Amino acid sequence: MIRFSIPLSLAISAIFPLVSVHAQPSSQAVRPLSELQQEFVDLRFGMFIHFNIPTYQPSDWADPEASPELFNPKRLDCNQWAEAALSAKMSYGCLTTKHHSGFCIWDTKTTDYGVMSSPYKHDVVKEYTDAFRAKGLKTMLYYSILDTHHKIRPGHITPAHIEMIKQQITELLTNYGEISALVIDGWDAPWSRISYDDVPFQEIYQLVKKLQPNCVVMDLNAAKYPPDALFYGDIKPYEQNAGQHISKETNRLPAMSCLPLNAAWFWEPSFPNDPVKDPEKLVKDNLVPFNDAYCNFMLNVSPNSDGLLDKNALAALKKIGSLWKPKRTESKLPPVAAPIISSNLAKNKPADSSWSDDMWIMDFANDDDFGTPWRSNPSVEKPWLEIDLGSGVEFNTITFFEPEHRIERYKLQVFADGAWKSIPMTPVEKQGRLTIHRFERMKGDKVRISIEKFSAPPAIAEFGVYNEPR
Q1: Is 257 exposed, middle or buried (0-12, 13-18, 19+ CB in 10 A)?
Q2: pTM for this one?
Q3: For residues 141 and 93, is the Cβ–Cβ distance under 8 A?
Q4: What is the pLDDT of residues 35-50, one digit of tens each?
Q5: Cα–Cα distance between 459 and 436 in angstroms, integer?
């Protein structure tokens, strides 16, 4: 069992110094994000591949001190996976390079907790990308921010950890050719409790775009944000096992929904004899309606401890391929506002407002919870909400999200140099119930929304202030 004998932050620092990652810019021609989003939706159907050290443990969440000696897929054959994907009419694969317990299945230079310290001693990410590309399939990668082995978890995160994450992502997006999407997990979720501030989302996002500008970024835990607009990712994700379900009738965003073919994400010894999900139902309830709703469907299959897909999984995939008749024309995405990727400068800052309705006071407007709004008292004719950002804070974007549309006319102001000043009101972007104002960067101490006309007493679930990159 591999353990650090010195503090982890020092161990990581010994591997690489605490300086910014000097990633080389990609030579790829940068394509518009709208084009990449449409391309992702048009891929329609792909294979999620959960294969990592949990494959050898009785749980999807492996023991963070599990020995690398456990990882020994004696018959691993990524060509079999690719052929199975083709049999189901899939167009891509997505492999778990590192799950929540921190075991890396590529030849990383950042840690010895990985496949090169195992009996297998081969780069699984390379074998996977080579095999899928040889069959004409696109390649995507999954990466977990939460890492319980290296203590990248709440209360323990250091600059060295952030540097390690950047180095690992740099390896994954430098050494394996074109990666169509990076699927991130273990970030800003109630169960991971690592916020986009603890590990700065904007820095990671911009690193990905520097390395591979045409790689779309998706954080599986961004489902806590409303389905009206994109926050912290280029694609809206829905993990069905976690109770996240896309609206097939109202979705207007580029989306992905994922589901395991078996009862769990990683392989378990009972899987060869347990029934898998019904192929006919998967096609009828997932593939067909999702593709009509701008949503790509990612079906997880679990290679076994030998590194092969079980016979019942192979049969199910082949059956799906015989049942599914993809449409010849793609669903054209409606216009989508650019994603919000920077930290919310208003989050949990001191708030003030005109008289609130009952318990729904001003602090609910910036508590990082889209389900708890500030509500104006019905008797207030000119409601207002104000957020104290601190001294001289830079920002260039303001958003507000309404539980339902009620606000018809309003003005935005910034308090700077001892006086209230107007913030430009145009252009304005409406994305469902979210209103977005983007303007030239300015500095201020407070921001205020003054509501001048409304159809019913207004409510704001979240008021956001951002300093977005331009």
Answers
A1: buried
A2: 0.93
A3: no
A4: 999 999 999 999 999 9
A5: 16
